[in-house]
Amino acid sequence: GNSVTQMEGPVTLSEEAFLTINCTYTATGYPSLFWYVQYPGEGLQLLLKATKADDKGSNKGFEATYRKETTSFHLEKGSVQVSDSAVYFCALSDVYSGAGSYQLTFGKGTKLSVIP
Amino acid sequence: EAGVVQSPRYKIIEKKQPVAFWCNPISGHNTLYWYLQNLGQGPELLIRYENEEAVDDSQLPKDRFSAERLKGVDSTLKIQPAELGDSAVYLCASSFSGESYNEQFFGPGTRLTVL
Fold first, then answer.
1. Among partner residues B41, B101, B108, which is closest to A42 by beta-carbon distance?
2. B3 contacts A99? CB cut-off 8 A
3. What residues in A contact B98, CB-CB < 8 Å?
């Protein structure tokens, strides 16, 4: 079956520090990969995605590259801000044939706290 | 555009009591998902609807959980009777499913506490 493993938190960084959150996956097919973010008191929001090998997803200064050879999708940001404090989830999906809907498999989440 | 709406946001009940959660998906989204999120864990799918049909309910504990999506729009998830271990956040998500990948949009969730 599919599974996602991401680094355990919590992660605490100073403002403007470099961020890396590791994510590796196991999948039987050719999944799409995602990073979701959950701010305190809010629902999960899609941060970025990549649908095939070597694709780079990017949004709000965050980046992640789909590495098929290492089955990884690590999240990076060059300079974090206090407003980036949230829980980050790595996820994958297999596209079901026909309907186009799919199931997401999530990692356990990594809590990031950025201090001024 | 309004997002996925869930109610209530918080619910506290005693064990063995029934409880229901309501979800209104984004207008036009034909696929609706219910997820369970335990503390410190990622969401896990409970059930997925395509319009009004439940197409994947393999993870739904059917002895106490039930769900419905009448008319293919709003959905209700019910637990009867609730157990202590059901304390968690219940998330609803929706998407428009067609030929290609479509993003799932999540609601804020209902936090259930069973005493």
1. B108
2. no
3. 100
Residue A98: its pLDDT value, please?
45
Query: How is residue B55 written in tokens?
Result: 């197409």
Sheet holding B5-7, edge to edge: B5-7, B19-24, B75-79, B65-68
Chain A residues within an 8 Å CB radius of B25:
none
Q: Do A101 and B31 touch (CB under 8 A)?
A: yes
Contact B3 A51 (CB under 8 A): no
How confident is the prediction along chain B (115 residues), in pLDDT tens digits per residue?
679 999 999 999 999 999 999 999 999 898 999 999 999 899 999 999 989 989 888 889 999 999 999 888 999 999 999 999 999 999 999 988 765 567 889 999 999 999 9
> pLDDT per residue over A23-76, tens digit each?
999 988 788 899 999 998 888 999 999 988 999 999 999 999 999 999 999 999
Q: In 10 A of CB B9, how many CB atoms?
A: 12
Amino acid at site B74: D
Rounded to 5°, angle at Cα A56 from A50 and A62: 100
CB atoms A101 and B50 under 8 Å: yes
Identify whether the C-beta of residue B92 lies closer than 8 Å to the C-beta of residue B23.
yes
For chains A and B, count residue pairs whose Cβ atoms are closer than 8 Å.
61
